[in-house]
Specification:
Helix content is 56%, strand content 1%. It contains 14 helices and 2 strands. The protein has helices spanning 2-6, 17-43, 51-62, 69-81, 92-95, 97-106, 119-124, 128-135, 139-177, 197-202, 209-214, 230-240, 252-262, 271-277; strands spanning 48-49, 244-245. It is globular.
Length: 294
Amino acid sequence: WTVQASALAVFFVPFSWALVALWAASHFLRAIGLTLAFHRYYAHRSFQMNRIARFVWTFIGTAAMQKGALWWAGHHVNHHKFADREGDPHSPMVSGVYYAHIGWFLNDARHDRLEPSNPVVRDFSKVPEIAFLDRFFGLPPLMLAGAMYWYGGFTWLIWGFCLPTMTLAHATFAINTVNHLFGSRRFDTIDESRNNAITAFFAAGEGWHNNHHRYQRSARNGFYWWEFDPTWYAIRLMSFVGLAWDLQPVPARIYEEARATKAGRRPNLSVVDVSESAPSSSIGFDLTDEADPV
């Protein structure tokens, strides 16, 4: 709550459009770090990247001050495993809006610890640099805050760290609440996930949440070119220069299902299709996922 409240200091420091640009850079770069590394890489294995790129993006994501990558991604796996049912750490249908939005993050006695069998913990906790960042998750945001204050004083600390840390926190948490309450449903998933263009903008493409719940393994959440997904653009750019590979596409059958639903036809779902939108009872990934070894 201290950092959340500190953002109010923006009303007591100078304003300029250059400072707004500083806010945007700090917000969106760290948002992509969260979504690219914590979400699409660690939680869903939707692409592969080399060890240096992984460390850099994990450091950037950890600087968002949303705890460590293993903690964040491990809880996200559990969200899919129990989506909008008992066991989901942040479902407004199960625990109410406040708890699902921020209460679970600030004070979660039930779901704070992850089981050793959680696939994120199991596969990445032995990678020393990732385990270090997960354990000392306060270090990257502290370094960012210090750098902002050193370069631009109190004004840069507020505009470059405090305000964007607050806005990014709520942009991320809104996916847990807003995107399970408000928006459109392209796919008839077993949960209440929804697509929302506003949250997609501020959360770097994560707002296409119904898409994501229908096919979790895809490296893109915006399934169509008009669905703004800067995290996908960053992954594609990395692939062009050899920093990322094995990008998981959206299968043609998923697009066909979307077309059938839009036309008012009942899509023909196979056992595989159903399993992709249903949480696995064992590890929380799609039943069709075959995660590559670390």
